Amino acid sequence: MHLPEPRVTIARLGREGEPLVIIDDFTGQPERLRAMGVAAQYHPAGADYPGLRALADPSYLDLRRGLMMAIMARVFGLEGMVHCEIAAFSLVTLPPEQLSERQRIPHHDHSDPRRVAIMHYLGGPDSGGTAFYRHRRTGFEAITPAREAAYAAGLAADAAEYGPPPPGYPGADSPAYEQIGMVEARPDRLALYRGCQLHSGVIPDPAALSPDPARGRLTINMFLYGT
What is the pTM of this model? Predict the structure, then answer.
């Protein structure tokens, strides 16, 4: 099978310069992946993710194994063995008024900088991409183990000064956070970034969210970790 040549863009986020890698035309077969997502069996994702998830098979990453290993080593400094920790089809479904307070602000997936998040977009720009943020009070853009206590104290101070965040998905800016970058969703676009980066899904039209994977904001989420 002939694969289209992928287009790789490497950027640096904010003041701290953490890497953001975008790979367009990753598989050359987004319709096949979307069909697999439509056929998957979904379940509630838990307290943190505002929607549904289903198991996904990460083996298709081997289509670009050489490219992926080079990016892991040269961009993220992971030169040893790299493993896939989680792979899931994901659907954002919760309406804004049902979000918990934690879901109304940017989040980080891990504090371990050796874990790299992958977001594989299967929809177009209207489905919403991913935004990255700086916490204004602390200046943090990534939450590492050494920063966890200071960040928790900063969140408590935010709550005391600003009150709870208003219902809704994070937007461009707020009293507590400043947006420092964004990835636009495009079919078969892969975005890679450290899971410790503060980020949030971009939800341009909450009314369009749906639990139907044929209509909703369908992505594949993965976490790679290594040494």
Answer: 0.95
